[in-house]
Amino acid sequence: MAVRIVNWNSRTRGGPVAAFLQRPAFDRRAEGVARRVIEKIRTGGEGAIAACMRRFDGVTLAPAAWRVTAAELREARHQVSAADRRAIRETHRRIAAFARAGLSRDWSMRTRHGGKLGERFVPFERVGVYVPGGQVPLVSTALMTATLARVAGVAEVVACTPSDREGRINPRLLHALAVAGATEIYRVGGIQAIGLMAYGTGRIAKVQKIVGPGGPYVTAAKRVVYGDVALDLVAGPSEIAVLSDGSMPARCVAADLLSQAEHGTGWEKALLVTPSAKHARDVAKALAKQLATLPRAAAVGNVIVAGGLLLVTVKTLADGVELCNRFAPEHLELMVRKPERVLKTVTCAGAVFLGPWTPESAGDFVAGPSHVLPTGGAAALFSGLTVNDFQRRTSVIAFSRKDLEETLPVIEAFGRMEMLEGHARAARLRFGSDE
């Protein structure tokens, strides 16, 4: 299965690179379906959710059986090997440490006349996390979402993830959710999970915010419920761009490209950008060799057939950075001799991985920052999920009499400019005027 190698420069118009870059952050067709389904769930509650589970997932479960029980969580733990439990604990520890370091804290500053200005950060009371489970059990995603919520101080963390037709969920995923601190887990996936969390049911309270990645229909459903709940970002099919100057062995670059393509929905994107035509050819050979032995070769084949894997040669590294910025990838690897210098010119990427010892998979599984990142070019507009996404920021203003007296002329000026006399009067009356 051939992978294309093409040339690009900043003056290039059209062609395979332009087509590769033009991937939508949202699937308009999926949005139409999601809108209709969400409206049924909003008005129909549990019955509509149950009907969707039967229709889309082939799952027939009574609403009382949707929630994973404490006994099931204990049983799941026993089914997970000691080695896997250690790996889950270690990733949880690293994520929590990174989150604690980045947590916003209340702060204040004094005005010139003894007043105070500042900000307070208050956690949401109840949030929902969506954990995909259709293609593969994303155990790491359970940790990369629920852990942040708990570090932020969220009391109730509702997790939704799809089950098989018998209602079973991968025990490693269940154990990871328990370790991360999920307080409620429901075996509901897809559009219906977003509807359940956004609107609740007779027995399940709605959440205030929904976070987590998903396929086109989950992403579309999140868009539909926006405003009824808060959302995180556009987090859909995986993407990677590798900027390589040829100093990294071709086999390593090829492996990194395949690591994202193997998700295998057919929507993934994997891009190599290099100033070395020989390096591009070597990577192409390494891709073919590794693909022959990759367990999920068929899934990668879906991506290649869909045009989602492309190798591009450029004249200079600076041209390569420009192309990567235009792509605005979820993940960007800088496999170059001086990655810190190149990093200064990167403007659009969900996460950047520097140097030969930082494969993207380290970020996916263990480094610490959440791997829930913007896709579909949305890295030009959004940032990845952080612990602060689980807090509400409130401004705090406490003027002294002298502060208000000093700024009264400014308030009155804006009242005149905006024809809002009531605003000006509200400040002026405090000094006995207009009585």
Topology of this protein?
Elements: E1 4-7, H1 15-21, H2 28-57, H3 70-79, H4 82-102, E2 107-110, E3 116-123, E4 126-130, H5 139-152, E5 156-160, H6 171-180, E6 184-186, H7 190-199, E7 209-211, H8 216-225, E8 230-231, E9 239-244, H9 250-261, E10 269-274, H10 277-291, H11 297-305, E11 309-313, H12 317-327, E12 331-335, H13 339-343, E13 351-354, H14 360-365, E14 391-398, H15 401-417, H16 421-428
Parallel strand pairs: 1-11, 4-5, 4-7, 5-6, 7-8, 9-10, 9-12, 10-11, 12-13
Antiparallel strand pairs: 2-3, 3-14
Helix pairs in contact: 2-7, 2-8, 3-6, 4-5, 4-6, 5-6, 7-8, 9-10, 15-16
Identify the notable features of this structure and list them briefly:
Rossmann fold, 3 domains, alpha/beta, 6-stranded parallel beta sheet, 435 residues, 16 helices, single chain
Average pLDDT reading: 94
N-to-C order of helices and strands: EHHHHEEEHEHEHEHEEHEHHEHEHEHEHH
Give the total of beta strands.
14
Main pleated sheet: 6 strands, parallel
- CATH architecture tag of the largest domain: 3-Layer(aba) Sandwich
Shape: globular
Helix fraction bin: 40-55%
CATH superfamily of the largest domain: Nitrogenase molybdenum iron protein domain
CATH topology of the largest domain: Rossmann fold
Give the C-level CATH assignment of the largest domain: Alpha Beta
Runs in which pLDDT lies below 50 for 5 or more consecutive residues are none
State the separation between the terminal residues, measured CA to CA.
84 Å
Question: What is the SS-derived class?
Answer: alpha/beta
What quaternary form is this?
A: single chain
Compute the number of helices: 16
Strand order of the largest sheet: 1-11-10-9-12-13
Kindly provide the radius of gyration, computed on alpha-carbon positions and rounded to a whole number of angstroms. Answer: 25 Å
User: In what range is the share of β-strand residues?
Assistant: 15-25%
Count of all domains: 3
